[in-house]
Amino acid sequence: MKLNTLTLAILAVSSAALAQDQEHEHPDPTEVITITANPLGKTALESTQPVSIISGDELKQRHAHSLGETLSSEPGINNTHFANVAGSPIVRGLGGPRVKITQNGLDTGDVSRGSPDHAVTTETSTAEQIEVLRGPATLLYGSGAIGGVINVVDNRIPSEPIYGLQGNVNGSLSSNNDNKEASYDLQVGNGTWALYTDAFIRDASDYETASFINDEGERVDSVENSFVEAQGGTLGVSYQFDNGFFGLSYQGLSQDYGIPGHGHHEEEHEADHEEEHSNEVHEEELHEAHGPYANLEQDRVQIAGQWRSPFSGIEQVDFRGALTDYQHQEIEEDFVATQFENQQKEVRLTARHQKLAGWSGAIGWQWDISDKSAIGDEAFTPDTSRRTQGLFWVVEQEFGAHHVDLGARYERTALASEDWQLNTFSAVSASAGYLYHFDKHTSVSVNLSHAERAPSGTEVFSNGNHFATRTYELGLGYELHEETSGEYHIETAEHRIETERSNNLDLGVHYETDSFHANVNVFYNRVDDFIYDDFVGLTSDQLHGDEDHDEHQHEEHEHEEHAHGKALQVVQFSQLDAELYGYELELDWQLSDAWSVHSFSDYTRAKQRDGGNLARIPAQRLGAEVRYQAQSWDGSLGYTRYFSQDKVAVNESETDAYGLLNARVNMYPNWLANYGATLYLKGENLTNQLGLVHSSYLKEEAPVMGRQFQAGVSITF
After folding, report:
1. Which residue has the higher pLDDT, 253 or 115?
2. 98 and which of 49, 147, 193, 475 could share a cystine (Cβ 3.0–4.6 Å)?
3. What is the enclosing helix (H) or strand (E) of 585?
4. What pTM does this model have?
5. At 23, is the pLDDT very low, low, confident or very high (cuts 50, 70, 90)?
């Protein structure tokens, strides 16, 4: 892998600092916070798998509308960047159905894993912490976590006694897209009963960028149809008894957001409807959007409980369950073009047992069912049901300075659609981890895992137009056969669909003193039967459906393509062997009581084992930030360089390098000290750079946000 000069310089600084011998540890506070995603109650320092936790002021400073944008500066994590309206985390080059996104350990229940224009339904403005598990985490969370887990944690069901009143209130205003945002979370209790409530509201217009040429050849300085209107709230209650607790919560969420680069209609098609859609009131109802927009709604009920020392041999039993009702409509010209729905139920039961031959551990059972449906222009996947059950067992033991983790999981997943017979997949995963403390400053870790993933419904059953990605998607269950010159017939595939099988090796070094902190992770991931979207070099007007898809459906596809202005590139889901490798580096150096330097770098190389590159893999990054801490204020100035990406797949263009300069000032006025108040001002992309995000399907149409200033207040009580 290539390392530029600046990366090598930082590594040299790291080596010099590692040679210092300090007498006392000064751990990062986030590294002694318990990882709720782990049933054994570990901290990040005790984990053999690379884990990081973002919480407190750091989480407030990073918070953005989408989860992907909130985590985009975390080493090893990138953003799918569907403009600013939707964004999902990419972990070490893997995203979509390979990264599990959970709310308090349970699947979010949305449809964000199937398309980059579908929003993730977590809310970070009211979260307590976000846990990032890099690499396969299939043991605890199933085959959908073959790339990693992002767990958003809040206290909607209080698990500890609460006395009195406590909470947070936040508000901010932004210059670039006129974003106005406010949120609060509040907890009150008497030690036995606890009540939790939160709410947020967000309203943003189209965002501005540095000047660029859009796909119509026009020079513009904003991303059309990138508005966001979102609001939601949660109410939860819990009861504490001598040996545990039990509680439930309800969350309601609503979002309207534009879908940039989607559904560009021909002038003649627009003219046919000009008279029908010309009144100003209607335009206001569409939030002054210039194109299609999504209307998203979700209702979610969660249940959680814990029973400590229930009976002999079991130290603790934890129960979690969620019932999620999700839908979103994609609306064009005052009619619902497509409607997506998901009804999902999930139960997790985990029992932590007493030591067996010196091994502490936990055994668990997970049950998850999902029924998804789609109706309309972009219903490229038929109604699909998924039924999953999994059993897992994880154990650990200390041998002096040596720590060993072992675990295994067995899972069965059944996929079915209205046109297909039942497909059942079995997945077996196992891992072994080793952590060694050389001394109180230095530790090394090794984690070896074998993980298997059942394909998603989209990857198997898709067969239709997907305008958000400007493709015609064809799942693993279909194959193309040439009829005549230039014409192709879609038929049901006869080949066997395999589970993905990942063999992943992680090596980590952690070093900690009073003045220096370093984390270095190196990984290698070999994936057999990797499922990828292959651009086959055809367009949708060259396709004919099979006998099961009648002539009417084919005519409907042709009409939709005409309405959207052009034929779509055909993408065929296929399987091949792949490998991914790279590193994550994070350094903190305390220069004095007031001054410190933070830096990071990450890199992922992803390729097919028989030659060629995987698509939309983020480029190498290198960032540094200088921080100053005074008595009543602190500030920072940072720069992140996104290098060019020239390791591209077939029919994928290279992406130029760019850099972002950011600054922040936090003030803690004495006259607000009793309210735990922070006033802040931050500036992002201060030099107004044009940045194209290589991992984005809208790379050319939706660059990163231009220069922006944000002012806000945060109050903790």
Report:
1. 253
2. 147
3. strand 569-590
4. 0.89
5. very low
Which residues have a Cβ under 8 Å from the Cβ of 18 and sit 6 or more positions away? 442, 511, 516, 518
Q: Which class for 389: exposed (0-12), middle (13-18), buried (19 or more C-beta within 10 A)?
A: middle
**Tokens 């449809």 -> residue:** 111
- Whether the CB-CB separation of 586 and 556 falls below 8 Å is answered with no
Residue 457 has φ and ψ, to the nearest 5°, of: -60, -40
Q: What is the pLDDT of residue 546?
A: 52
Across 254-293, b (16+ Cβ under 10 Å) vs e yields ebbbbbbbbbbbeeeeeeeeeeeeeeeeeeeebbebebbb
CA dihedral 654, 656, 657, 660 (to 10 degrees): -120
Three-class DSSP category at 283: helix
CA 653 to chain centre: 24
Region of 41 please: left (phi>0), alpha (psi -120 to 50) or beta. Answer: left
Q: How far apart are CA 704 and CA 710, in angstroms?
A: 16
Residues in Cβ contact with 640 at an 8 Å cutoff, skipping those fewer than 6 apart: 73, 621, 622, 623, 659, 660, 662
Q: Which residues contact 39 (CB under 8 A, 6 or more apart)?
A: 140, 318, 350, 352, 362, 364, 394
Q: How far apart are the first and last CA of the chain?
A: 48
Residue 659, both tokens: 């850099």
Q: Mean pLDDT, to the nearest integer, of 134-161?
A: 92
Question: How many C-beta atoms surround the C-beta of residue 146 within 10 A?
Answer: 30
CA atoms within 13 A on the CB side of 595: 3
The conformation of residue 711, written as its DSSP 8-state character, comes to: E
Burial class of residue 343 (count of CB atoms within 10 Å of its CB; 0-12, 13-18, 19+): middle
According to the model, what pLDDT value does residue 432 have?
96
Looking at every residue in the chain, the average pLDDT score rounds to: 87
